[in-house]
Design a protein that fits this description.
Layout lengths: L5 E7 L14 H18 L4 E5 L16 E5 L11 H15 L1 H5 L2 E6 L7 H11 L3 E5 L2 E4 L14
Parallel strand pairs: 1-2, 1-4, 2-3
Antiparallel strand pairs: 5-6
């Protein structure tokens, strides 16, 4: 049975347009890591996945048998004149996902993971999170989005 309370948001850039701070910029190696990570989450979780890619690339064709589990979104992020780093691109991806993803719109909890990484203890983390946070929506490690009513003293904004 699929647990749709939790959605895993995987962020991706197969062909980077920001290179100054990247350790791995080879698109084929990056694509391979994204494919491996997606297979890991498909095999090791029952959560719906949202894979958002910001260089206009698509790996959707590799996962035709999993269209009920994975929502693929893609757009092309415009290169900055002054390179503002991968953090800015990451926020663009998260913003795009929040605006365009049907699964995220209906999720109780969003677990944001860099798309090339495998969080080996993802099930334990998500179960523990659900036990202790009944009104929170996790967007990223340091960004929370609350459903009303907000916890006392907090509002729908970035928390440092």
């Amino acid at each position: 049975m699929r647990d749709s309370r939790i959605v895993i948001l995987l962020t991706a850039t197969i062909t980077p347009n920001t290179f100054d701070t990247l350790v791995l910029s080879n698109p084929e190696e990056r694509r391979s890591q994204y494919l491996n990570a997606l297979h890991f989450y498909l095999q090791n979780t029952n959560y719906p996945l949202v894979f958002v890619e910001n260089s206009g690339e698509s790996i959707k064709d590799y996962f035709k048998d999993y269209e009920d589990r994975i929502e693929f979104l893609s757009f092309t992020s415009i290169p900055s004149t002054v390179d503002k780093g991968k953090g800015l691109k990451e926020m663009e991806i998260i913003n795009f996902a929040i605006i365009h993803s049907e699964r995220i719109r209906h999720a109780k909890v969003i677990v944001k993971i860099t798309g090339r990484l495998k969080v080996l203890n993802i099930k334990r983390i998500t179960v523990d999170f659900l036990k202790t946070h009944h009104s929170l929506k996790l967007v990223s490690g340091n960004i929370l989005k609350f459903r009303t009513p907000y916890p006392q003293g907090l509002s729908d904004k970035k928390i440092a």
